[in-house]
Design goal:
alpha+beta; 3 helices
Length: about 120
Amino acid sequence: RQERWLLSNSEKKKWATFGTFYTVSQIDPPSATLVELDKQADLMQRVPSTRLLITGHTCNLGSYERNILIGQLRAEAAKAYLAKLGIDPRRILTQSLADFDPILPNTSEANRKVNRCIELTIFTE
């Protein structure tokens, strides 16, 4: 299991849920992603000032329109899961980057699998 942590400044932390791969058209978070979302919910409950941006990613298979939609639906499904855990949905923004900002080049199936993920960006005050 891999995780990528990027610190852009003291108020923002960003990571992708590596190792929790979606299939090409899968919308609902895989079980390993749910574990990561559970951790995020715990943090958000302990630190009420945190906000979250969930970005849905896809590989480069499929049309532009379909990939934007799938990325957005992945992000929205993760948001809905956090809301079921008691996180106020107003604290969560979602977006889709589809295949525009891949983690790895979409040059092989192994790389495309890694690119099918959600990315969580935490903002604190």
